[in-house]
Design brief:
By secondary structure, the chain is α/β, with parallel strands linked by helices. It has 9 helices and 18 strands. The protein binds zinc ion.
Length: 337
């Protein structure tokens, strides 16, 4: 069993010992196969890291060889610990992976590291890769991927019955072609103790299952081709239970309670300011703004125009402004994703 002084007695000591981005490999019972876990891409999302630290500390042998990439250690170490998604001045790490059709940019340190992570994973040749995250607001556990192939469903099904299938070019790890299923798992809110427990139970299953691909995938709710609700970066966004007079848009601070719920047409999600819903954008696949097909304004409320399922709705204005307010799948509509 590894001594606590080798890997630290908790996840904070663990990252202090690592000191920076680290690739760890552990021999399995079956040394002919590999599995991989990428964790802490976002420095303030520790559930996966805690689970991995506990597994290493237990001294148990994984079923197959196991590769673990602990990524944003520097951001997590910035005081107070685990409070930074990425270092000040840097970009969101999960937008730094090069993908086909992605605009070329100057190669930042993060993009160079993202390239190294992809190359390391590719040469390790794992049979599946899990990328661990927490959501910024309350949410059930769910998977995110770019494919609904059977092997992806089999791996995702170890963790959750909910799987989001993205078709947008964002620059994420899951968009990389690494010749195996890659699934992001969002274990739930970053402060939710339930998320830590879920991460531990499900990652242990992933690490210790004799086969990931024996059972048929069952009852997976697929949320395919979701749309992103974004806000104009200059708009003044608030999350509150009462309208904020200086806000262009006020979203209810309980919006995360609607995550993974099917909501009807004419359900309110917040209030508008002087600008109506003009600051809100939803881009279709061909780049057109279709926000007005999905939302409308009435008596100062922002209302859904059609039934939809929303998820990854945040209550963090910074994330909402810099990434998006929520993802949504319209129900049986003519809205062209
Ligand atoms: Zn994340």
């Amino acid at each position: 069993m590894p001594q606590a002084d080798a890997v630290g007695k908790n996840h904070i000591e663990f990252i202090k010992i690592l000191g920076g981005p680290t690739w760890i490999t552990i021999d399995g019972k079956d040394t002919s196969r590999q599995r991989a876990i990428v964790t802490l891409l976002h420095g303030n999302e520790p559930s996966g890291l805690k689970a991995i630290h506990q597994f290493i500390l237990s001294g148990r042998k994984p079923e197959t060889n196991l590769g673990i990439f602990v990524v944003s250690v520097n951001a997590a170490l910035l005081h107070p610990y685990f409070s930074h998604r990425y270092l000040p001045g840097e970009a969101d790490f999960n937008r730094c992976f090069k993908v086909k059709g992605f605009k070329e940019s100057r190669e930042s340190n993060q993009e160079i590291l993202a390239g190294k992570i992809s190359n390391t994973l590719k040469s390790y040749a794992p049979e599946a890769i899990i990328d661990t995250h927490n959501t910024s607001a309350h949410s059930d556990i769910f998977g995110v991927t770019v494919s609904s192939e059977k092997t992806v469903l089999q791996v995702a099904g170890l963790f959750s019955r909910k799987l989001v299938v993205l078709d947008q070019v964002l620059g994420t790890l899951i968009e990389q072609d690494l010749s195996c299923p890659i699934v992001t798992i969002e274990f739930g809110g970053f402060l939710d103790p339930k998320a830590d427990k879920l991460a531990q139970n499900t990652l242990d299953k992933f690490i210790e299952a004799s086969s990931l691909f024996r059972d048929e995938p069952k009852d997976i709710q697929l949320l395919e081709r979701p749309l992103r609700l974004e806000i104009n970066s200059t708009a003044n966004l608030h999350y509150s239970s009462s309208v904020q007079d200086e806000a262009d848009i006020t979203i209810f601070n309980t919006i995360d309670q609607m995550n993974f719920s099917k909501i009807d047409a004419n359900v309110s999600i917040g209030w508008t300011g002087n600008n109506g819903i003009n600051d809100l954008t939803v881009r279709s696949k061909d780049g057109n703004c279709i926000a007005e097909e999905l939302f409308h304004e009435s008596e100062g409320f922002i209302l859904t125009k059609i039934a939809m399922t929303i998820f990854m709705a945040t209550t963090d204005a910074y994330i909402a402004t810099n990434d998006c307010l929520m993802y949504l799948c319209p129900e049986n509509s003519d809205v062209s994703a």
